[in-house]
Amino acid sequence: MEVYLDNSATTRCSERVRDIVLHTMDAAYGNPSSLHTKGMEAEKYVRDAARKIAKTLKVREKEICFTSGGTESNNLALIGSAFASRRRGKRIISTAVEHSSVSHALKFLEGHGFEVVYLPVDRDGVISPEALEEAVNDDTILVSIMHVNNEIGAIEPVAQAGEIIQRKNPGALFHVDAVQSYGKIPIRPVQWGISLLSVSGHKIHGPKGAGFLYIREKTKIEPLSYGGGQQSGMRSGTLNVPGIAGLGEAAWEMHENLEENRERLYQLREDFAGRVTGIEGIVINGRSGRGSAPHIVSVSIPGVRSEVMLHALEAEGIYVSAGSACSSHRTAGSATLRAAGLPPQLLDATLRFSFSVSTSMEEIDYTVEKMRELVPQLRRYT
C-alpha cells in the first residue's frame, strides 16, 4: 500500500488541472503577448485564471500578478515593497517562524540597511498580538506574517494583525504568506487589511512552477525582473500559460469545495492525532482541534531520530516529511521548532504528516498501525 502524507511539500495535480494544462500545451500554445489569434487564445486562459483567483479572494483581477510560486511571490513582495518604501523608513516586522523564502529575503534586506524585528512565538508557534502592537511604530514600512506555519500548522492571528497595523501605522504594508492556507482556510485580504499575499499552485493540486502575488491596488512595489513589460511591468517574461491555466483551475476547484474539504481534513487530523498519541511517548506539537490548520500534524517521537523514522515508514510505503521540504538540507534543526521552545531531544525526533482532500481513512489506519509496530522496534536500537 502506498500512502502519501507529505502534501505540505507538494500535492498531486487534480484531473481537472491535468486536463487544462495538457490542453493549453497542445492547443493554446501561442504567446499571450502576441497580437494574432493564437496569442489572444492563450491570453484568454491567463485572464480566465486571474478572474477565478480574484473571485476566491474577493479582489480585482488586475491585482493578481502571476509568478513561478511561493518563493518568488515572497521575494517580490518583501524586496520589491521594501525598496519602494525605503525613503519613508527601514523598519520591517516579521516572525521567528517564517518560511525560508521569507527569512532569507529578510536577511538580504538587513544586509542593505533595513532593520528587521522578529516577533517570538509561544509553545504553539503563535505570535502575540500585543507584541506586534508594541513593535509597530512610525518608522515601520512593512509587516510580514505567514498565515499557516508550514511545519506545525499554527494559524497566526492575521486578521487581528491587520487591524493593529491599520490602527498604529496605516502607511505600513502588510504581507501575508498564504502558501499553506490558501484553498484550505477562508482568506479575506480586503477585510483584513492585507497589501500583499503569496500563493503557490502546487500546494493546492495545481502545477509546479506557477503561483501568484496579490498586490493591492496602489501598493508601491518595485519589480525584481525587467524586460518585455508583461503584467504591467511588474514581472517581465513570457507568461507560463499552461501553469497559469492549471493554477486558476486548481484555485477554483478548491474554492468550490472549501467548507466540505476543510471539515473532512479536520476529521482526518483529529482522528490521526488522537490515535497516534496513544503510542507511548508521542506528542503533538502545536494547538489541537480547530485551533490549528486542518491538514498538518507535527509529531515528536522521543527516542527515535526523525530521519530513521522517516525511512522506516518509507519502507512500508508511507511518505512523510521531517520538516519543510525547502529546508531539508538544514543542519541546525528547524528554526520553527526551536522558536516554539521544543526540547533539544525532540528537535531531531519530529515528523510532519500532512493530508490532502484525497487522503483516505484507510490510509490513516494503515499509517497508525505501522507506527505502533515501528516505534517500539526503533527505540530498542537507539
Helix and strand element order:
EHHEHEHEHEHEEEHHEEHEHHEH
Q: Any idea what the shape is?
A: globular
As a whole number of angstroms, the C-alpha radius of gyration is 21 Å
Terminal Cα separation, in Å? Answer: 27 Å
Strand content: 5-15%
Strand order of the largest sheet: 2-8-7-6-5-3-4
> Would you tell me the structural class of the helices and strands?
alpha/beta
Unreliable sequence segments: none
User: Strand tally, please?
Assistant: 12
Helix content: 40-55%
Strand count, sense and closure of the main sheet? Answer: 7 strands, mixed
Summed up, the helix count is 12
Whole-number mean pLDDT: 95
Description:
Helix 3 packs parallel to helix 4 (about 100-110), helix 8 packs parallel to helix 12 and helix 9 crosses helix 12. The radius of gyration is 21 Å and the shape is globular. The protein is an alpha/beta fold. The strands form 3 sheets. The chain has a 7-stranded mixed sheet with strand order 2-8-7-6-5-3-4, with helices on both faces. A 3-stranded antiparallel sheet has the order 9-10-12. It is built from 12 helices and 12 strands.
